[in-house]
Write a structure and sequence with these properties.
alpha/beta; Rossmann fold; two-stranded antiparallel ribbon; 10 helices; binds S-adenosylmethionine
C-alpha cells in the first residue's frame, strides 16, 4: 500500500522543522575535511512545485515555508533558507521547495556519497531523473529499511541516515525502532535522524519507549507544536537525533522558539527539546 505522496505536504511546518534540522546535521559533517555518507530510507522526489496541483490542494506550505521565507527569523535560518532560495530561479519568489535528498546533494562535496531509497514507482522515477547527472548519488527502488541496512557499515565511515516514513500504518513506529536497533548494531557511530508526526492518537510513544530502552544513544528529542494536542489534525512535528553533533540541542531550541512565534496557533504548547537518552 503506497498511497502517500509527499507533494501534498511539501514545505509544511513539519518539512521546515525536519529540513532545518537536516541542514544543521550536514553543516556539522562539513566542518571536517573528511568525506561522509548520507542515506535515506524514504526519499520522496526531492523537488516540489508549490504552484502544482498537489501542493495547492492542501496549501500546507502556507503554514510552513511561506510564513518564514521572507520573515526576520535570524541567522540560524540562513543556511536552510539559502538552500530553499537556490532551488528557486528567482529567489525573491517562492515557487519551488526542495526535498531532503536535494538538500543533501546540494551540501555534498567531492568524495561525499549519497544513497536514496524510494519504493513508490512513480516517485522513484522522478527522483532518479533529478539525479541522473549526479555521480555521487545512488537512487534505489527498494524498501528503505532493508536497503539502507544492507549498505551499513559504509565507507567512508562517518555520516548520517535520515528515516522519514509516512507512518500510514500504525506498525511503522515499531518498524522504525527495530530498524534503528539493527542499523546501529552494524554502524554504531553513525548519526540517525528520525522524523515522526504528533497526532492525537499518540502512536509515536511506543517508538520512543522502545528506543529509550534499546541501548542506543545518546538520543536528542526535538518536538515543535503548531496546534493544540487535542486537534484532530497533525498538531506537531518530532525529530529524534541519535549521536547528535555538539550544540545541536541549543540550535534546535533557538530555531524552535522562532518557529513557535511565526507558525504556532493559539493553544499550541511551547517547543520541547530534551534528551530521550542522556549523553554519557
Ligand atoms: C515523507 S515522504 C519522504 C520525504 C522526504 N524525506 C523529504 O523530506 O523530502 C515518504 C516517502 O517514502 C516512500 N515510501 C513509503 N514506504 C517506503 C518504503 N518501505 N521504503 C522506501 N520508501 C518508501 C513514499 O513513497 C514517500 O515518497
Amino acid at each position: 500500500m503506497l498511497s502517500y505522496q509527499h507533494g501534498f505536504h511539501a514545505g509544511n511546518f513539519a518539512d521546515v522543522h525536519k529540513h532545518l534540522t537536516l541542514s544543521f546535521l550536514l553543516e556539522s559533517l562539513n566542518k571536517k575535511n573528511k568525506p561522509w555518507c548520507y542515506f535515506e530510507t524514504h526519499a520522496g522526489t526531492a523537488y516540489y512545485d508549490l504552484n502544482g496541483e498537489q501542493a495547492n490542494k492542501t496549501a500546507e506550505y502556507k503554514q510552513g515555508i511561506e510564513s518564514i521565507y521572507k520573515a526576520p527569523v535570524g541567522e540560524l535560518f540562513d543556511r536552510y533558507l539559502s538552500l530553499v532560495k537556490s532551488i528557486n530561479p528567482d529567489p525573491n519568489k517562492l515557487n519551488y521547495y526542495p526535498g531532503s535528498p536535494w538538500i543533501a546533494a546540494k551540501e555534498s562535496r567531492d568524495g561525499d556519497k549519497i544513497a536514496l531509497m524510494e519504493l513508490h514507482p512513480t516517485e522513484y522515477q522522478l527522483l532518479k531523473g533529478r539525479f541522473s547527472s549526479n555521480d555521487n548519488v545512488a537512487v534505489h527502488n527498494r524498501d528503505g529499511y532493508e536497503g539502507v541496512a544492507s549498505l551499513l557499515p559504509p565507507k567512508p565511515n562517518r555520516g548520517l541516515v535520515l528515516i522519514d516514513p509516512s507512518y500510514e500504518i500504525k506498525s511503522e513506529y515499531v518498524q522504525v525502532a527495530n530498524f534503528i536497533k539493527k542499523a546501529s548494531q552494524r554502524w554504531r557511530n553513525g548519526c540517525y535522524a528520525i522524523w515522526y508526526p504528533l497526532l492525537k492518537a499518540g502512536n509515536h510513544r511506543e517508538m520512543l519507549h522502545k528506543l529509550k530502552f534499546s541501548e542506543v544513544g545518546p538520543i536528542l528529542r526535538a518536538e515543535f507544536y503548531v496546534k493544540s494536542a487535542a486537534d484532530q489534525r497533525m498538531y506537531g512535528s518530532g525529530m529524534l537525533i541519535i549521536n547528535p553533533p555538539w550544540q545541536l540541542d541549543e540550535k534546535l531550541q533557538s530555531v524552535s522558539d522562532v518557529l513557535y512565534k511565526q507558525l504556532a496557533e493559539e493553544g499550541a504548547a511551547t517547543p520541547l527539546i530534551d534528551w530521550l537518552v542522556a549523553e554519557k
